[in-house]
Specification:
Blueprint: E1 7-13, E2 18-26, E3 32-33, E4 36-39, H1 44-64, E5 70-77, H2 80-83, H3 86-98, E6 103-104, H4 113-119, H5 140-159, E7 168-172, H6 176-187, E8 191-195, H7 199-208, E9 213-214, H8 218-221, E10 228-231, H9 240-245, E11 250-251, H10 264-270, E12 274-275, H11 278-281, H12 284-292, H13 298-306, H14 308-322, H15 326-342
Parallel strand pairs: 3-5, 3-6, 4-5, 7-8, 7-10, 8-9, 10-11, 11-12
Antiparallel strand pairs: 1-2, 2-5
Helix pairs in contact: 1-15, 3-4, 5-6, 5-12, 5-13, 5-14, 12-13, 14-15
Length: 351
């Protein structure tokens, strides 16, 4: 396959309609943690491609965040609005359980805390559960908090001040994470311009913040004057056409896999745009989910999420020192931790 993954599992249960893929990229630092995405993929091949990319990104995210976790991802093929049933979720839980803890699952696009409560009826390895079941609840709050910390670090590096006061932040996607991010940037004194395919999501933001501007779509958003671009919807947001017209000086958003290809980060660098690597700044959610494993404390998870500010500053400084993009610098730092700390598993312990 050549992807570098440790394991890829195909899961099928015709009775419930379950068709899923679980990809484990690495367990060098610990069990592979990554959410389950429920999405109407056009084909099984498209689902596999997404699972491979997302699981790799999770390994790097968990490493860079300093967590003792590897990276994995589950994807369920189907429309969550019509195909999600108790039987399907529980069938998926049994497949997760069959991996014996090599893979820990949680929420992602199309799955919610209540879904993980159902999955957890069949497996010990479902996290991101609802608070009523002793879980950490909605992880989007701390995901947005981490993106905001990354944005502050980028502002300090680029403009010499961590404050966003007087800046304009363009948020593409104001769902769970994006809407919380708007709250944070507005509270910090920034203006915000937003868009979302779901008009109701936009209306909820405008109801809270009448001063926020909404535009029709992402194409309009990237042509609207702004200082910081925050992609918070699905991946591939920074395609060559977008990068070519982007007015922002900083890109920092919550979406996963924002760079469509290896050269995207260099294109941003050539244009003088400071890119805050997505898997670095959106790690607040996985920090929250990881904390659940130890008896959840929001304050503890929030404090750890705040360290994204310092990690981002280190990534930007490393990128400058090595003459590379922040994306390359972040990858190098994550890979070094996987190698150096992961190597310790070779020191045998008594049983």
């Amino acid at each position: 396959m050549g992807s570098g993954h440790e394991q890829v599992v195909f899961c099928s249960d015709p009775g419930s309609g379950l068709r899923a893929v679980i990809a484990i990229y690495s367990t060098a630092l610990g069990p592979a943690l990554g959410g389950t995405r429920f999405f109407p993929y056009a084909s099984e091949e498209a689902a596999v491609t997404d699972a491979l990319a997302l699981s790799r990104a999770m390994a790097y995210k968990n490493s860079l965040a300093g967590l003792d976790l590897g990276g994995g991802k589950g994807v369920i093929i189907g429309d969550p609005r019509t195909d999600k049933t108790e039987a399907l979720l529980r069938a998926y839980g049994r497949f997760v359980e069959s991996l014996g803890g090599r893979y820990l699952t949680a929420c992602d696009v199309g799955t919610y805390n209540a879904d993980l409560d159902v999955v957890a009826r069949e497996t010990r390895f479902a996290h991101g559960r609802s608070e009523a079941f002793g879980g950490c609840g909605d992880s989007s709050v701390l995901t947005a908090a981490g993106v905001f910390q990354g944005m502050r670090a980028a502002a300090l590096h680029h403009w010499g001040s961590s404050s966003l006061a007087g800046r304009t932040v363009a948020v593409a996607g104001v769902g769970k994470v994006g809407s919380h991010l708007v709250d944070l940037v507005v509270a910090d004194g920034a203006s915000a311009v937003v868009t979302d395919v779901d008009r109701a999501a936009v209306d909820r933001v405008l109801a809270r913040h009448p001063g926020v501007t909404a535009v029709a779509d992402t194409a309009a958003l990237v042509r609207t004057p702004h200082d910081v671009y925050a992609p918070c919807a699905l991946g591939g947001a920074l395609d060559d056409e977008t990068v070519a017209v982007l007015p922002a000086q900083i890109v920092c958003g919550g979406a996963n896999n924002q760079l469509p290809h290896a050269g995207s980060a260099e294109l941003l660098r050539e244009r003088g745009v400071l890119y805050a690597p997505d898997y670095l700044v959106n790690a607040g959610g996985v920090i929250q989910v990881e904390d659940e494993r130890h008896g959840f404390s929001f304050a503890r998870a929030e404090a750890r999420t705040a360290t994204i500010f310092d990690i981002a500053r280190h990534v930007f400084a490393t990128a400058d020192a090595e003459g590379v993009s922040p994306a390359v610098a972040a990858d190098r730092l994550a890979e070094e931790r996987m190698r150096s700390v992961g190597r310790l598993a070779t020191i045998r312990l008594p049983h």
